[in-house]
């Protein structure tokens, strides 16, 4: 699945947790969960859903582009979903969430060591 959107400012929570994300509207037809994919052709983790751990109510696609530094606010990004890693989860604490995010990032990096980016 492919989709795109304009990056919007949100609370900046991902950056504070060590995982800066580009937030765009999530496609209505897409299942919630965490995915490995590409954003502007760069390896990424893509969370689709409501951030249950923080009691959020708005559904987003939060895109964490691996090894990217920069500002994407008000720019369009193109996202391509490759594979679902897991369902959306609610964590009991911020530190529990961060530990899972670190594990998710390791899985994504492993995945991309064998994925041909020119597909």
TrEMBL record:
GO biological processes: FMN biosynthetic process; riboflavin biosynthetic process
Keywords in alphabetical order: ATP-binding, Flavoprotein, FMN, Nucleotide-binding, Transferase
Catalysed conversion reaction: riboflavin + ATP = FMN + ADP + H(+)
InterPro entries registered for this protein in UniProt: Riboflavin_kinase, Riboflavin_kinase_bac/euk, Riboflavin_kinase_dom_sf
Residue ranges annotated for the Riboflavin kinase domain, each copy included: 1-113
Enzyme Commission no: 2.7.1.26
Protein origin, superkingdom: Bacteria
SMART domains: Flavokinase
Listed Pfam families: Flavokinase
Molecular function terms, GO-annotated: ATP binding; riboflavin kinase activity
Protein name: riboflavin kinase
Protein's organism: Candidatus Doudnabacteria bacterium RIFCSPHIGHO2_01_FULL_45_18
């Amino acid at each position: 699945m492919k989709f795109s959107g304009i990056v919007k400012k949100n609370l900046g929570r991902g950056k504070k947790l060590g995982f800066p994300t580009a937030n765009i509207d999530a496609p209505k037809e897409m299942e919630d969960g965490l995915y490995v994919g590409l954003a502007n052709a760069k390896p990424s983790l893509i969370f689709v859903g409501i951030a249950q751990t923080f009691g959020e109510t708005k559904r987003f696609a939060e895109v964490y582009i691996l090894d990217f530094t920069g500002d994407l606010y008000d720019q369009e990004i193109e996202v391509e979903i490759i594979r679902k890693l897991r369902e959306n989860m609610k964590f009991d604490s911020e530190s529990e969430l961060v530990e899972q995010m670190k594990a998710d990032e390791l899985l994504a990096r492993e995945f991309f060591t064998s994925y041909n980016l020119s597909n």
